[in-house]
Amino acid sequence: MDDRIGFVGTGNMGSALIRGVIESKTVQASHINGFDVIESQVDKLVGEFGINKCLSLKELVEKSDVIIIAVKPQNMAEVLDAMRSSLRPEQLIISIAAGISIDFIEKQLGFSMPIIRVMPNTPALVLQGASALAKNALVSEEQMKKAIKLFGAVGFACEVDEKLMDAVTGLSGSGPAYVLLFLEALTDAGVLAGLPRNLARDLVVQTAIGTLEMVTQKDNLHFAQLKDMVTSPGGTTIHALEIMEKKGLRGIIMEAIKRASDRSRELQMKD
Question: Would you state the CATH architecture of domain 5-161?
Fold first, then answer.
C-alpha cells in the first residue's frame, strides 16, 4: 500500500495496528506517521519500527493520506477541532474511538468527507483481533478495501452497516471478557474436581486453543456438529451439557450480549 498512514494516538490499539501493518508488509514503516501527546509512546515506535514522528496534529494531517484516530472517546472532539483546518477532501478518516458515531465526527468537523468507523477488540494486541468497519456515503470502494486490508493485518476485518455497530460492540467488542470469564470458570471447576490450579489452567488453555483450531480447520461443519463429535451416548459430556442447559447457560449468554448491545446504544455519542 503506497498511501501515507497517519496515527493520531499510539497507545495500545494504535501501536498494535502499526505493528500489524508493518509485520504483514501491508505498509512500509517509512509511510507511517505518528503523533501522540505522550511523545515517549511515539519515540518507542520510532526506535522499534522506524516510523516517522510528527510534532503536531497539523503536521500529521498534512503528511498523511489516511488518518487513523486512536484516542479515547472523551478526547475526540478536541482532536477533531485541532485537525479541522488542515484536512483535505480527498483524505480518509478512520476512527476507532468507541461509541463515536460517523454523524458525531461530521458534525464536529462541520463538513463531510470520507469517514470510516471501526469497532476492533483487544485481541488485536496480539494480531488476532476482530474488527467491524462502517462507512459514510463518501467512502469509495477502493478506500474501504484499503481499510479492510489495514485492519486485516491485526486479525479478521469485515464491513457492516453502522446500525449494526452496537450489536458488534456487545458481541465481539466485549466478547474477550466473556471468553475469559468462561475460561476462568472452567479452571475453577477443574480445581473443584481436584486438579492443581496450574494444571487446570494449562488444560483449559490448550483445550480452548485446540477447539478453535478444530473450528478453523473444519469450517464446513456447524458448531453443533463439532460438539456432537465430543458427545457420546450416555457419556460424561452429555451429562455436563444437560446441567448447562437446565441452568440456562445458552439463554444467559444471549441475554447478556443483548444487554451489552443495548448499553452501547445508550452510550452512543451522536452529536
Answer: 3-Layer(aba) Sandwich (3.40)
The helix/strand/coil state of 111 is: coil
- Give me the residues paired with residue 93 across strands: 67, 115
Give the list of residues 6+ apart from residue 120 with CB closer than 8 angstroms, or none: 13, 96, 129, 130, 131, 151, 154, 173
Provide the CATH number for the domain formed by 175-267 in this structure.
1.10.3730.10
pLDDT (tens digit per residue) in 164-210: 999 999 999 999 999 999 999 999 999 999 999 999 999 999 999 99
Distance in angstroms (rounded) separating the CA atoms of residues 118 and 270? 15
How does pLDDT run across 94-144, given as a tens digit for each residue?
999 988 999 999 999 999 999 999 999 999 999 999 999 999 999 999 999
- For 45, counting Cβ atoms within 10 Å of its Cβ (0-12 exposed, 13-18 middle, 19+ buried), the class is buried
Contact 63/8 with Cβ under 8 angstroms?
no
Please give the Cα distance from 239 to 227 (Å, whole number): 13
Largest separation between any pair of C-alpha atoms in the chain: 70
- What whole-number distance in Å separates Cα of residue 188 and Cα of residue 183? 9
Reading the block at residue 226, the C-alpha cell is 463439532
152 phi and psi angles, rounded to 5 deg? -65, -20
- Identify whether the C-beta of residue 153 lies closer than 8 Å to the C-beta of residue 127: yes
In terms of C-beta density within 10 A (0-12 exposed, 13-18 middle, 19 or more buried), how is residue 248 classed? exposed
What number of other Cβ atoms are within 10 A of residue 10's Cβ?
27
> Domain extents for the chain?
5-161, 175-267
Instruction: State pTM to two decimals.
Output: 0.91
- Please work out, in degrees rounded to the nearest 5, the angle formed at the alpha carbon of residue 177 by the alpha carbons of 171 and 178: 65
Per-residue pLDDT averaged across 6-10, rounded? 96
